[in-house]
């Protein structure tokens, strides 16, 4: 346990609009089996040939576990007010429950203390997809008990860090890890089963509600939320079957978690499908008061009817005149603006953008520099759209770039670079990109001339 005095100055002195960066544990930490850490479902998944590009793993990743002080120094130079990171559940509870792992907890103590010393507010996300494999062996999120194992894990983290951390998120992108992990393929645990998918949705929602209650009871002055990936789901063609597919996917992607958690009901298209897994009192357990809505957003989805998975939904082409990132995602800043306005109206919560950014094929030039003008153009357009949303009345209070570092990008391995800091994976060297310096200049300029507030 850290012996430092509680520190809340970072939160108290934060500007009206908060600039930050985000990462996640499995994508940057490495040290996959060091200091008592247990395996996660992603450690297992990466070892199944062909699952991940180049059969990459998170065994070393960015080696943040050993180089966190260097990364905090990069954030301090950048001038961000906050850093959103996640805790690795199997690092602190190797079997997912039972005895805690002191070296794992001590790592997060060191990280949090370093952030506070640098004047950076820690935003702690409990779950960014790396479920302990020991719980995966028991069914993972398809097992109702997982919701309560998660609550116990939340209690451990709250007791350990709540003297210094006040901002907590329960989950990151529940729609993503359930859809791709349980029914559409492409992510851990690699299951394709419609019933298990529906059970996992409900159990994650139960885990969220239980964790919110635990955090409220253990952390004085806690500010609690959850991070959703909200993206417009549009039909790829006007064909009735594609319109129907887009509406169904919208219900799963955008509504299956936020609606029951905040509005107290599953979307109408999903209500009958979820009914078999709902027990008496569950919706009340799920719909617990939260303080803010965390948004991740990159682009709209263009959907079509497709029989390649049990949902009968797949991705269609985006409009030909729309530019795309190196991931193939359409670049449509107007969709970001409209999403922010719609969320603020629908859920009536302050919104923090906790992921936005783009992948680029970045390289180090002859001068040892990394120039990424297309990323800067992307960030400019999306931040301008955020300003338009605020001017239209959306209550948007912060923006965090994904990501601080190039990192392990799930099924894409290390083939896609999202960072504003380049990482040489062979040596671990960090090289701030042109976008890093651009973002630092933006933060400094808005300190003198704050981003326009919502009207």
From TrEMBL:
InterPro entries with a match to the protein in the record:
GH, GH_1_N_CS, Glyco_hydro_1, Glyco_hydro_1_beta-glucosidase
Keywords for the protein's UniProt record, in alphabetical order: Carbohydrate metabolism, Cellulose degradation, Glycosidase, Hydrolase, Polysaccharide degradation
Its recorded reaction(s) are: Hydrolysis of terminal, non-reducing beta-D-glucosyl residues with release of beta-D-glucose
**Enzyme Commission number(s) of this protein:** 3.2.1.21
A Gene Ontology molecular function term for this protein is: beta-glucosidase activity
Q: Which PANTHER family match?
A: GLYCOSYL HYDROLASE (PTHR10353), LP05116P (PTHR10353:SF36)
Name by which UniProt lists this protein: Beta-glucosidase
């Amino acid at each position: 346990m850290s012996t430092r005095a509680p520190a809340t100055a970072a939160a108290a002195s934060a500007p009206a609009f908060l600039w930050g960066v985000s990462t996640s544990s499995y994508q940057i930490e490495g040290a996959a089996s060091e200091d008592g850490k247990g395996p996660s479902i992603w450690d297992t998944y990466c070892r199944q040939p062909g699952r991940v590009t180049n059969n990459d793993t998170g065994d070393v990743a960015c080696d943040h576990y050993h180089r966190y002080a260097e990364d905090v120094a990069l954030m301090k130079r950048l001038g961000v007010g906050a850093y959103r990171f996640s805790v690795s559940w199997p690092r602190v509870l190797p079997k997912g429950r039972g005895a805690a792992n002191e070296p794992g907890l001590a790592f997060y103590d060191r990280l949090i203390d370093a952030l506070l010393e640098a004047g950076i507010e820690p935003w702690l996300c409990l779950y960014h997809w790396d479920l302990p494999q020991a719980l995966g062996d028991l069914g993972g999120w398809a097992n109702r008990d997982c919701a309560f194992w998660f609550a116990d894990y939340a209690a451990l983290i709250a007791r350990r860090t709540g003297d210094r951390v006040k901002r907590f998120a329960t989950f990151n992108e529940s729609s993503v890890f359930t859809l791709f992990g349980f029914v559409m393929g492409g992510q851990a645990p690699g299951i394709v089963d419609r019933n298990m998918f529906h059970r996992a949705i409900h159990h994650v929602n139960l885990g969220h509600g239980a964790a919110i209650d635990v955090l409220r009871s253990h952390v004085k002055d806690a500010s609690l939320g959850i991070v959703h990936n909200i993206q417009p789901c549009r039909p790829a063609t006007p064909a009735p079957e594609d319109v129907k597919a887009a509406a169904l996917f919208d219900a799963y992607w955008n509504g299956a978690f936020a609606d029951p958690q905040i509005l107290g009901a599953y979307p109408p298209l999903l209500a009958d499908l979820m009914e078999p897994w709902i027990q008496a009192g569950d919706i009340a357990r799920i719909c617990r008061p939260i303080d803010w809505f965390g948004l991740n957003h990159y682009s709209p989805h263009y959907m079509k009817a497709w029989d390649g998975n049990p949902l009968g939904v797949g991705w269609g082409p985006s409009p030909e005149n729309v530019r795309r990132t190196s991931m193939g995602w359409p670049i449509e800043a107007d969709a970001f603006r409209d999403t922010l306005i719609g969320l603020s109206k629908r859920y009536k919560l302050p919104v923090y953008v906790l992921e936005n950014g783009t992948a680029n094929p970045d390289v180090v030039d002859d001068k040892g520099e990394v120039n990424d003008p297309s990323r800067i153009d992307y960030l400019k357009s999306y931040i301008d759209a955020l300003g338009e949303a605020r001017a239209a009345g959306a209550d948007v209070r912060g923006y965090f770039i994904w990501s601080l570092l190039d990192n392990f990008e799930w099924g894409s391995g290390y083939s896609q670079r999202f960072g504003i800091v380049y990482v040489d994976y062979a040596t671990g060297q960090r090289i701030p990109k042109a976008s890093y310096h651009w973002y630092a200049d933006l933060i400094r300029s808005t300190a003198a001339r704050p981003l326009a507030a919502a009207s």
